[in-house]
Amino acid sequence: MSSSAQRPAGGPGARPTLEEVAALAGVGRGTVSRVINGSPRVSERARAAVERAVAELGYVPNRAARTLVTSRTDAIALVVPEAETRLFSEPYFADIISGVSAELADTDMQLLLVLVRDQRERERLSAYLRAQRVDGVLLVAVHRDDPLPGVLEDLGIPAVLAGRRGEHEPLGYVAADNAGGARMAVRHLLRRGCQRIATITGPLDMEGAQARLAGYREALAEQDMAFREELVGYADFTERGGRAAMTELLARAPELDAVFCASDVMAAGALQVLRAAGRRVPQDVALVGFDDSIVARHTDPPLTSVRQPIEGMGRLMARQLLDEIAEPGRARRQQVLATELVVRESA
Predict the structure, then answer these.
(1) How high is the pLDDT of residue 301?
(2) Which residues form the HTH lacI-type domain (predicted)?
């Protein structure tokens, strides 16, 4: 036995142990571990007791030893399978990153931002994950045929998605009530007296875009109004896509009197086309977006939009992932957050 092991607990020069912190705080060893690792699954009372004990004893986690024993890296990857043009042009991504960063601020976790734009980068990321370079993954902008969630499942890496691939998603996720938000938007337009309501969708290989289109159809069906294919413009969540879809809609259905766009960015593009065509918003065409991003507050006129708590989603994703990392094998949580309609001058 080494001389250090023979020293009595708390003796001169002895390094305080996790067990000593737990004894002084009056909690279990696992609770101390969760507090030190940044898990939110600890009561405020227990957290305060542990923090007092840590300060009193001068306890410092042995990070190098912990990494050897647990293979922990204290790093989380935030993976965005999109081009950098979308990352920097759409407020959604900035808000998600802001929420994740805020939740990780008081932990020792490093956040790695990873863009996956093509098959080569996808293969590189898969190799990086297999080498156990990160403790967990947050995946944003999930497409139905994206192989990355399957890779995460196969490797058993803790992972949380922003949204889901479909109704039977096996991984943990945090999503907004996309269908419910779309229903609210279209009901609002119907209450205004709009009769020929068009929609501009996001990419339909994403469950969120599908759900928003489904909510649009459901709101029309509630009023026994027929779904008309010519009133649907298919786009990709970009401003350019919104402009192109709005141009096509005006050519096919010039009598339209309202448009529900599946994102604020697309609504901004649609607004440009309507103005160029001499259509006044909202007098001739009412316009509603989705996200309630900074874009909605800076269009002219300001945009009525469905608010989803994007920054809160980022926080919740990070919290959920920390829990999975701290407690391997725990049940995965799948959470859907409420949306609300914010009414402004465009509708």
Answers:
(1) 97
(2) 16-70
What is the architecture of the domain spanning 178-307?
3-Layer(aba) Sandwich (3.40)
CA 96 to CA 206: how far, in whole Å?
17
User: In this predicted structure, what is the pLDDT of residue 146?
Assistant: 86
CATH of 3-61, one of 1.10.260.40, 1.20.140.160, 1.20.1250.20, 3.90.25.10: 1.10.260.40
Cβ atoms of 316 and 301 closer than 8 Å: no
CA distance 102 to 38: 13
CA 175/CA 226 separation, integer angstroms: 29
pLDDT of residue 347: 96
Q: The tokens of 79 are what? A: 């993976």
Q: Per-residue DSSP letters for 121-142?
A: HHHHHHHHHHTT--SEEEE-S-
- Give CA separation, 101 vs 196, 204, 239, in Å: 43, 29, 27
Q: For residues 308 and 155, is the Cβ–Cβ distance under 8 A?
A: no
CATH for the stretch 75-176+310-337: 3.40.50.2300
Determine the pLDDT at residue 117. 85
pLDDT in tens, 265-293: 999 999 999 999 999 999 999 999 999 99
Residues of the chain with pLDDT under 50: 1-10, 64-69
- 75-176+310-337 and 178-307: same fold? yes
Domain ranges (residues) in the chain: 3-61, 75-176+310-337, 178-307
How high is the pLDDT of residue 62? 57
